[in-house]
Amino acid sequence: MSKEQVVIIGGAIIGSFCAWSLRQRGFAGKITVVEKDPSYRFSSTALSAAAIRQQFATALNIQLSLFGTKFLHSVKDHFGPEADIGFVEGGYLILGQSASRDVRLQRAEAQRTLGADIVVFDRPALKQRFPSLEVEDIDFATFGQSGEGWFDAWSLLSLVRKAARLQDVTYIAGEVTRVDAKAELVTGVILADGATLPCDCCILAAGTASGTLARTLDIALPILAKKRTVFHFQAPVDPQGMPFLFDISGIWMRPEGQGFIGGIAPADSPDQDDSGDFEPDHYLLEEAFWPALAQRVPAMEQLRLESAWAGHYEVNRLDHNGVVGPHHQLANLIFATGFSGHGIMHAPGVGRGVAEWVTTGGYQSLDLSPLGWERVHLERPLVESLII
Description:
Elements: E1 5-9, H1 13-24, E2 30-35, E3 51-52, H2 59-73, H3 75-79, E4 92-96, H4 101-113, E5 118-122, H5 123-129, E6 140-144, E7 149-150, H6 153-166, E8 169-173, E9 176-182, E10 185-191, E11 196-198, E12 201-204, H7 210-215, E13 223-234, E14 244-246, E15 251-256, E16 259-264, H8 283-296, E17 304-316, E18 323-326, E19 333-337, H9 343-360, H10 373-377
Parallel strand pairs: 1-2, 1-12, 2-8, 4-14, 12-19
Antiparallel strand pairs: 3-7, 4-6, 5-6, 9-10, 10-11, 13-16, 13-17, 14-15, 15-16, 18-19
Helix pairs in contact: 1-6, 1-9, 2-9
């Protein structure tokens, strides 16, 4: 099947890495990226906590994160000597209690086997390493000594987007309202202004909008927008040396400049779609986040809120894992969506894999087929249980 025109729906981190990676793989055809919000004001990329970890339950996610870390370390090699994404390898500290110890230790061993630098702390070692934490109710913790941390997602997006445009990738501002298909092939995408973009290959990287667009092809892609509120605050705790903390209560927190950011997921409503709702859930601060934070880091009882914002996870309700690769009938429809909060850290590996598939018809570096559409079509989940 000739692929001379590729249209990518979605120009944030996943779509832009797909476009750039296609050029890296030597694809010489026309690449058009359609982005409905060229300001990226409401983009999940721009509103995320922008972190990377190897501590996953799914082996492929661990491998994608390992590649992602390698990529973050080498941004200057890819994008020039001035490239800077502010990568801080502060590590993820994931706390645990005895009931989950055996499973978590097995996972840590699996992560190490694949190459992740994960250590396990018992309570005394945890207190010694992070003395500001109250750990009397904690039995153990896992920690990424290297390769885990956080970075500036906007800087990374800007770098890869600029590099793609310099390699003759066209970005257009527009909202795709429908994808057209004929004879088991996608033929083009229709924009809100009525324009049609013909294509030989369509990459669906539209984030939270992917499920809606898939339905225009009668494809049941189980992706919903789920709102997550982030609080930016100051506290009388030195952020230097503090990790990305994930607590047994469900709260998370990490340093951000001279302060911190953090949050907690609201009570889950499985069928609720939060599309269009970017109002921060301020009630979570008083009712859930602050009390749990003060219990874990007593000095943070004196928290001073600076700001709050809300972004969206593109949640795959089937199994909280991304959907990557071709549709079983529409062979030129390629999915790159549904990452349930870990899309930014996996964007380099997913972009590389999609580019390999488009240019060669298969995966050459890392086999992404476990994330393929078939498991969704057959409702055979590949569950990622470690979602933060």
